[in-house]
Amino acid sequence: MSEAPSFRYARPICTVLVLAYIAGLIGLQVPAVAGYFKSLTALNLLATLAALLYFHTDWRPSFYFYILLAILTGFFVEVVGVHTGSIFGGPYAYGAGLGVRLWGVPPVIGVNWLLLTYCFGSLADRLPLPVYMKAILAASGMVLLDFAIEPVAIRLDFWTWFGQPVPLQNYLGWWLVALVLLSVWYGLPFRKENRVVTLIISLQALFFISNLVIFYLAG
């Protein structure tokens, strides 16, 4: 029996993902090409999402609904946050690092909310816990990753807090928005397993933590 396409191409897709993140990590540290690699960040997010969705196993209408919900919620929450400063604890603005902006927010940020809620939701779904605990753990995992994302994103001009420390409300806001999305995620009737979520979370954590250490050592 022939192997399903989603499994047939697992090794080359995962290899490309790993190489892309390693190349990005190295390229951002080389001044001569750092700007070029920074400009590829949005494309890398889209490629990561494409790989994730390639391995999704249950394309029913409820999953399409979640895709739209996560992207639109993530984007418009950020629009409100940028223009009011009320959701994440203070005024902030997006820079040029994530590409074109609409109402002050790069649309790709909605992709990031979909990517992270899917990955952490799928990972937590493997645990023998009540659904509410899975949602809490997944949202908390996203916040832990954001502790590494924030200083790196500021350094790379993804966004800025205008020289102020990252507000604690930012992490609470992340957690609450993620918890709402993840509650919907677990409530919708589609299969949650995906074989590349562990790899994607690991690559994102490695990328941001490694950049954080490099920036710290460089002063």
UniProtKB/TrEMBL annotation:
Per the UniProt entry, the signal peptide is none
The record's section on Pfam families has:
Caroten_synth
Membrane-crossing ranges are 12-30, 36-56, 63-82, 102-124, 131-152, 172-189, 196-218
State the InterPro entries in the record: CruF-like (IPR007354)
Q: Does the keyword Hydrolase apply?
A: no
Task: Give the source species.
Answer: Fibrella aquatilis
Its protein name is Carotenoid biosynthesis protein
What's in the keyword line of the UniProt record? Membrane, Transmembrane, Transmembrane helix
